[in-house]
C-alpha cells in the first residue's frame, strides 16, 4: 500500500458516450444524428462499423449500472443524445428520450453513484446540419442553449455535475480540417475557427443559463489535452513548443478559463486571414462564462513532443492509425511553426498513441498554475486488443499497468497541490471506438461483439477487480 490516497469524497468514476454505447438508433422517437449519416459513407470507419446497435446499453443499462455498483463506482459520466430529447434539434420534445435518461440517472442514484452528464459528445441532430449547416451557423447557439436549458430544468435536483462540450478541439479538427468526422470537410481553416467560435459561445451561454437554474451545481467543458515537451533546448524548438501550446492547447483552455483567445495565437491567425471575428458583446459573454465555470475537464491520453517545422516540412494531413497496426501513423505539424515527432523516451500503443503517465501529472500542474481551477479527469484509458479465453477470462494486465501508472502520477499531483475532484476512466464497458470499430477495447467489462456482431454478453476483466480495490482503498492500493 502506498502512502498517498485521495480524499474520502473523491469521485472514482468511468465514462461513456451515447453514440458509442447505446444503439437503438431509431427507437422510441429518436431523431437522426450526423453520425448516423456519416458512418454510412464507405471507408469512413473501420470495416464500416456503425453505432446502430453499439453495445446495446439502451436495453442493458440496468445490467451495466449494477456492474458499476458492484465495482463501487462513485460517479458515472455519460452523454445525452441531443436527438433523443429533440429529434429535430429543436421544437417538439421526445418524452421517451427524457424518460430514458431519467431512468439512467435514477438507477445511478439508487446505488449511490453520482451521475455526471455531458450535453454534447459529437452527435448533432442531422436536421440542424441540413437546415443551416450545424455548427457553421451562429443559429446553432440558441438551439444548443435551448436544449441544454431544457435538460438543466428536467434533471435539476438529481444531477449536480455537468459537462457542456466534449473534446471541442477534436471534433472540430476532424470535422473541418481532416474530413475524418462529420461533416467531413477538408482544410477549411477559416471555417474551422469560425465553427470553434460558435461552439465557445454555445458553451458560454449554456454555462450562464445553468448558473441561473442551478447556482450550486458544477459545470465545465472537457478538453482533449496533450501537454507538450520541446524535443531539446534549442531556442527554435522551445519557441515551437510555445506556438504549439498557444494554437493547440491554450486556444481552448484560455477561452474556458479566461474568456479570451491567446494573443500570440490570435495575432498569427489574423496574419493568416483565418482568425474569428469577436464582437464586444461576444467577448463579454465569454468572460462572464469564464467567471462562472467550476472546473476544467481533461481527457488525457498522451503528451506531445514538439520541434520546429520548416516551411516545407510536414503538414497537418498525415495518415492516422485507425487499424491498430503499430507504426502506421505519420508525423504531422504546421509548416513554418511546429511538428510533433515521436518521443524516443516513451512507448506507444498499437494505435501509435504515446504512453506517458507523467504527462497527466504535468497537465494537472500546468492547469493549476495557469488557471487555478479544480480539475475533473473526464477520460483516461488504454485501447487494446483484448482476448477472451475459453473460460471467459480476460487477462488485461497491460491495462492495469497503464492505469496504475497514471493514477500514481495523479496521486502525486494532488499531493503537490492540484485540486482534482474526479477521475473517470475511458471506459466502463467496451464500446464502439468511433473510427476504430469494436476491435479497440477500453473497458473494464468485455462486451462479446466485434465488427460482424456478437451476443453482447458482459464479462468482467481482471482490471475490473483491480479498479474495485483502488476505489475501496481510495487509491492506497496503487502500486
UniProtKB/TrEMBL annotation:
Keyword tags: Glycosidase, Hydrolase
Catalytic residue list: 379 (nucleophile)
The keyword Hydrolase belongs to this UniProt entry's keyword annotation: yes
Name of the top EC class for this enzyme: hydrolase
Claim: Hydrolase is one of the keywords in the record: yes
PANTHER family to which the protein is assigned, alphabetical: ARYL-PHOSPHO-BETA-D-GLUCOSIDASE BGLC, GLYCOSYL HYDROLASE
Organism taxonomic ancestry: Bacteria, Bacillati, Bacillota, Bacilli, Lactobacillales
InterPro entries in alphabetical order: GH, GH_1_N_CS, Glyco_hydro_1, Glyco_hydro_1_AS
Family note: Belongs to the glycosyl hydrolase 1 family.
GO molecular function: hydrolase activity, acting on glycosyl bonds
One Pfam family matching this protein: Glyco_hydro_1
Protein name (record): Glycoside hydrolase family 1 protein
PROSITE patterns: GLYCOSYL_HYDROL_F1_1 (PS00572), GLYCOSYL_HYDROL_F1_2 (PS00653)
Enzyme nomenclature, EC number: 3.2.1.-
Amino acid at each position: 500500500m502506498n502512502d498517498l490516497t485521495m480524499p474520502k469524497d473523491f469521485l472514482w468514476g468511468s465514462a461513456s458516450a451515447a453514440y458509442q454505447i447505446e444503439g437503438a438508433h431509431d427507437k422510441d422517437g429518436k431523431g437522426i444524428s450526423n453520425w448516423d449519416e456519416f458512418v454510412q459513407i464507405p471507408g469512413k470507419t473501420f470495416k464500416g462499423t456503425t453505432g446502430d446497435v453499439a453495445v446495446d446499453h439502451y436495453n442493458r443499462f440496468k445490467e451495466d449500472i449494477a456492474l458499476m455498483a458492484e465495482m463501487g463506482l462513485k460517479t458515472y459520466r455519460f452523454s445525452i443524445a441531443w436527438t433523443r430529447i429533440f429529434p429535430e434539434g429543436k421544437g417538439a420534445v421526445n418524452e421517451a428520450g427524457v424518460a430514458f435518461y431519467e431512468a439512467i440517472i435514477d438507477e445511478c442514484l439508487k446505488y449511490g453513484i453520482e451521475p455526471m452528464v455531458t450535453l454534447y459528445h459529437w452527435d448533432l441532430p442531422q436536421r440542424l446540419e441540413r437546415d443551416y449547416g450545424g455548427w457553421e451557423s451562429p443559429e446553432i447557439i440558441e438551439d444548443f442553449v435551448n436544449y441544454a436549458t431544457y435538460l438543466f430544468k428536467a434533471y435539476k435536483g438529481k444531477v449536480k455535475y455537468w459537462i457542456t462540450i466534449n473534446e471541442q478541439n477534436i471534433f472540430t479538427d476532424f470535422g473541418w480540417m481532416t474530413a475524418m468526422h462529420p461533416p467531413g470537410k477538408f482544410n477549411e481553416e477559416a471555417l474551422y475557427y469560425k465553427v470553434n467560435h460558435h461552439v465557445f459561445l454555445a458553451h458560454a451561454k449554456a454555462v450562464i443559463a445553468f448558473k441561473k437554474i442551478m447556482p450550486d451545481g458544477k459545470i465545465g467543458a472537457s478538453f482533449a489535452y496533450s501537454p507538450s515537451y520541446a524535443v531539446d533546448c534549442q531556442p527554435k524548438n522551445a519557441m515551437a513548443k510555445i506556438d504549439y501550446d498557444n494554437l493547440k492547447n491554450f486556444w481552448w483552455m484560455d477561452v474556458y478559463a479566461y474568456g479570451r483567445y491567446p494573443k500570440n495565437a490570435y495575432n498569427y491567425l489574423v496574419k493568416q486571414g483565418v482568425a474569428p471575428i469577436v464582437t464586444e458583446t461576444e467577448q463579454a459573454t465569454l468572460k462572464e462564462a469564464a467567471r462562472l465555470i467550476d472546473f476544467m475537464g481533461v481527457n488525457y491520453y498522451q503528451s506531445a513532443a514538439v520541434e520546429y517545422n520548416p516551411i516545407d516540412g510536414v503538414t497537418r494531413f498525415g495518415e492516422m492509425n485507425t487499424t491498430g497496426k503499430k507504426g502506421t501513423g505519420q508525423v504531422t505539424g504546421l509548416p513554418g511553426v511546429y511538428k510533433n515527432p515521436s518521443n524516443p523516451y516513451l512507448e506507444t500503443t498499437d494505435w501509435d498513441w504515446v504512453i506517458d503517465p507523467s504527462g497527466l501529472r504535468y497537465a494537472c500542474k500546468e492547469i493549476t498554475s495557469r488557471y487555478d481551477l479544480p480539475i475533473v479527469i473526464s477520460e483516461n484509458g488504454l485501447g487494446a486488443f483484448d482476448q477472451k479465453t475459453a473460460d471467459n477470462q480476460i487477462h488485461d494486465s497491460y491495462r492495469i499497468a497503464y492505469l496504475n501508472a497514471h493514477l500514481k502520477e495523479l496521486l502525486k499531483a494532488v499531493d503537490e497541490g492540484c485540486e482534482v475532484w474526479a477521475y473517470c476512466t475511458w471506459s466502463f464497458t467496451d464500446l464502439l471506438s468511433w473510427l476504430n470499430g469494436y476491435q479497440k477495447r477500453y473497458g473494464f467489462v468485455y462486451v462479446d461483439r466485434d465488427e460482424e456482431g456478437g451476443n453482447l454478453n458482459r464479462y468482467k476483466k481482471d482490471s475490473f477487480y483491480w479498479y474495485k480495490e483502488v476505489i475501496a482503498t481510495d487509491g492506497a492500493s496503487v502500486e
